[in-house]
Amino acid sequence: MVSAKNLIQFMKAFELLSRPGGISVKELQLELDLSRRSIYRLFTSMEELGYPLVDRPLNGKTKSWGLMEDYVTSRPSGRVPRLSLDTSETMILYQILSRQTPLYESGMKRTISSLRNRLEQFYIENSGKEKVEQFRNIFLSMPGQYKHLKGKEKIYETLLEAALNKRVCLGVYRSFRQQENKEILFSVLCFFEWNYGIYCFIKRQEDDEVRTMAVERFISAKLTEFPSPEVKDFYPEDLLENAWALTINDPLDVKIHFSSAAAPYIREREWNRSQKISLQMDGSLILTLRTSGRRDIKSWVQSFGKDAVLLEPDDLKKEIEKELEDQLISYREST
Prior knowledge:
single chain; alpha+beta
């Protein structure tokens, strides 16, 4: 599915390539913050979508890239591509426009609203105002249990700057597990959104460990003069894919029995790439997978109540049994 980031990047590239005289690859790299290889991949994608790119000599060694002049339509709001979107593409674009983000209820609300208005103009130019109204009537933007980022805007901007400019950051972070504030020296590797919150991967200077951090739990953050050390063999997509929630570097093999009532819900999703499902004669099933995050798996299993029983690993099963016994005592004592 098209992401909002990719769409915005594509639109910005179109604007740059629509300039009279075009633009060099080096200038595109700086404007879009992409590698030379990524720029050429972008060129390939644009040509596959039917955008007529041309290159012209700029000086002895450099080429200027741009779109054919008669392909670009000038408008008061800027230059936009002539696109013909089908129903699926229109739906995807509308979902991007209507989707809420954790930043919306922060001080960045005005910036997000402005960006949405610009995207909607792009949408109207290509699909028509009537189509916008049709999708507005059939799609709802549901409010979520977003984590509060109000008052954290400056911290978020500092973390972004640290990642973009590859600078080491000094910050204070609230650890809920240890119930204390910790001062850490770290490099920001990348950001991602998960479960209505914004998180970042960082690499701590003290032990070179990669960790996931919730942006709203930073109490302070400031840039240092030190450049971030180069990070090798960092594949965030793989880390998140293998983790059950956000816990990385905590691997475990899991086997869970789900009742016949819960089995249809389990079968309709791919929970983990390594998962295997064994159907039972009574309609129940056994799910086995390799993931990361003991606490996360435990919470997930317990959320099914009597319809899920953890079979393996044995030590985590006993941990759940002990918690259920203690919980039963608490309930009995409260009556």
